[in-house]
Amino acid sequence: MSTPNPTDLRIVSLLPSATEIVCRLGFEDQLVAISHECDFPSTITDLPRITSSKVSFSFDSLAIDKDVRRLLEHALAVYDIDTVALERLAPDVIVTQDLCDVCAVSLADVEAACAEVVPGARIANLHPTRWGEVLDDIRSTAVTLGAPMRGDAVCAELEAGRAAVRDRCPADHKPKVLTIEWLDPVMIGGTWMPELVADAGGEALVTVPGDHAPTLDRDALANLRPDVVLLKPCGFDLARSHAEDALIARQLDGLPWPALEQGRVYLADGNAFFNRPGPRLLESLEILAACVHPEVFGDLAERHASSFERLAL
Fold it and tell me: Which candidate, 308, 307, 293, places its Cα nearest to that of 171?
């Protein structure tokens, strides 16, 4: 197979993290369409949007969860692809994922759409569950786009930033950290989150690297003793999370947590950070470090002040 000419490619991205990877690799000008959720960098937001969701995020967290589960239980897709637009755009490469059918269009639906309207398009499929696999996806996407050295350079930058945070963490103090990625039911951060917690100088509770997000009931939550809690609801920015302030207060009320007693509960932008397995996982790590060790990472707290806050509960 001949090596693709990067400047001639027409690229479609079907999820936000893929769009961020494509842009970080220097292929923003080759993007011809994005998903309905893609919002970074801001310079891509006028591109055609080729997917849509069957779930309304205007509902509360419990209603959203029930709606998604209903669709999946009936083997229905959560997202649709505009195949008419896909055929018209005639992409050379489509970047998608098969990690989570709740997060983006399923791989099976992408493959079916391609076979129907753009059979010659190459599919770059991402499946990250850990930090290293995120880097692998960046490298493999760069190879697919014909620029492997760009992938190596981006990964080297991310690894250097990760090491810079890790090297500043106190060796003799590792607070117990609970990360929450959905509010009702309460789901605990898995996949790469335990690694980020360790890199931020903490000890992750409940999950280990690569785990899918487990759901915990009230009794299980009460048995935990986190020193630090980070709420970062998937797909919710700070304003959207604050729409659920009453729910957050109810879910946390009366839990015997040192984090609550000491005012160490934080809310972060879970749309831009933490839940997108792409280059901004480094910024996610910096935010987490500012929460876990504020006495050390005051500079990172200032840098990311608009993306997280300490909750007054």
Answer: 293
For residue range 35-86, what is the model confidence (pLDDT) as tens digits? 988 999 999 999 999 987 655 555 677 766 565 555 445 333 456 888 899 9
Cis, peptide link before residue 41, omega less than 30° from 0 = yes
d(CA 218, CA 286): 30
Lookup: tokens for 248: 């957050």
Residue 154 CA, distance from chain mean position: 18
Look up residue 256 and give its two tokens: 């015997």
pTM of the model as a whole = 0.91
Contact call for residues 139 and 148 (beta carbons, < 8 A): yes
Q: Burial of 198 by CB count in 10 Å (0-12 exposed, 13-18 middle, 19+ buried)?
A: middle
Average confidence score pLDDT of the chain: 89
Which amino acid is located at 199 in the chain?
D
Q: Distances from the Cα of 241 to the Cαs of 132, 244, 306, in angstroms?
A: 29, 5, 14
Q: Which domains does the chain have, with CATH numbers?
A: 6-157 (3.40.50.1980), 169-310 (3.40.50.1980)
pLDDT tens for each residue of 210-260: 999 999 999 999 999 999 999 999 989 999 999 999 999 999 999 999 999
In this predicted model, what pLDDT tens digit does every residue of 166-208 receive, in sequence order? Answer: 999 999 999 999 999 999 999 999 999 999 999 999 999 999 9
Count of other CB atoms within 10 angstroms of residue 138:
28
Task: Give the C-alpha distances (Å, rounded to integers) separating 212 from 130, 208, 261, 283.
Answer: 11, 9, 29, 22
- Within 13 A of 168's CA, how many CA atoms are on the CB side? 19
Residue 92 token pair: 């050379």
Residue 270 CB partners (closer than 8 Å, separation 6+): 181, 231, 232, 233, 234, 235, 236, 237, 241
Taking a C-beta distance cutoff of 8 angstroms, is the pair 187, 213 a contact? yes
